[in-house]
Write a structure and sequence with these properties.
The chain has about 260 residues and is an alpha+beta fold. It is built from 4 helices and 16 strands.
């Protein structure tokens, strides 16, 4: 089965990596550790569960100074160079040309035609031949959400680029339709037209926790800010949307209140 079009990694770019590591370890339950270097040679932190790495973190590089802290998702492709060209030809942008990370893989930072950023990534083969774990458990990503200038147009772009399938659409009244997308036979995320008060198009990411109430209390006690929730969604799960102390937005999800 091809891995093209699958979210495979998540990365936080922030100004204070030590403070952010402490925050997410407490709130999500990760264990953080510096493991090697980024493509620019800067220290690279990996957030892990007992089963393995889930996400990474690096300090905002000099060329991106002034950019707000943010999470970005990595989408697996079979040819980074070809997909970067496809993004550009389809009206998107290539913010960082394809480059190699020694012993890790090849990547390119791109944006869709409405400005939302992603990283295209092809991993080098693992020495043990195994794929990284993708568990439905606390500490693992559970959802990906695109808020964008034109939701229907964005869906057509990603469906054409990665082969994502249209799933359920939820009518949100004046806010428009929240459109779910699927791959590998399951819903993986949603997208919709962003409200006027949201200034830019962006992808957001949701991580599983043990129980939403306890996680929300940990979040507030650790200096984070609740943006919305906790609230129950149609699946029965509970979600809280939040901002970390450095300003990066994210969300938490649990079946347990």
């Amino acid at each position: 089965m091809t891995t093209t079009g699958r979210f495979t990694w998540y990365e936080l770019m922030t100004g204070d990596t030590a403070a952010a590591a402490s925050f997410y370890d407490k709130v999500v339950g990760w264990t953080s550790a510096v493991m090697g270097q980024s493509g620019d040679g800067a220290p690279y932190t990996v957030f892990s569960t007992a089963e393995g790495g889930v996400a990474g973190m690096l300090k905002t590089p000099a060329e991106a100074q002034g950019a707000p802290p943010a999470w970005v998702g990595y989408v697996s492709v079979d040819d980074v160079d070809a997909y970067a060209q496809k993004f550009g030809a389809a009206g998107g942008a290539v913010h960082r040309q394809p480059a190699d990370i020694p012993a890790i893989g090849r990547f390119s930072v791109v944006a869709d035609p409405q400005g939302a950023m992603l990283v295209l990534f092809k991993a080098d083969p693992r020495p043990d031949g195994a794929a990284p774990p993708a568990l439905d458990a606390p500490g693992y990503p559970s959802w990906r959400e695109l808020m964008t200038t034109d939701g229907p147009s964005a869906f057509e772009f990603y469906a054409g680029m990665f082969g994502w399938q249209k799933s359920t659409g939820y009518d949100m009244g004046p806010m428009g339709v929240y459109q779910l997308f699927a791959y590998d036979g399951a819903d993986r995320g949603g997208m919709m037209t962003r409200p006027p008060q949201m200034p830019v198009s962006h992808w957001g990411y949701v991580f599983r926790v043990d129980a939403i109430g306890a996680a929300t209390e940990r979040l507030k006690a650790s200096g984070g800010t609740v943006i919305n929730g906790p609230m129950q969604v149609p699946t029965g799960d509970w979600i809280v949307q939040a901002r970390d102390p450095q300003g990066a937005t994210f969300a938490l999800q649990s079946p347990n209140a």
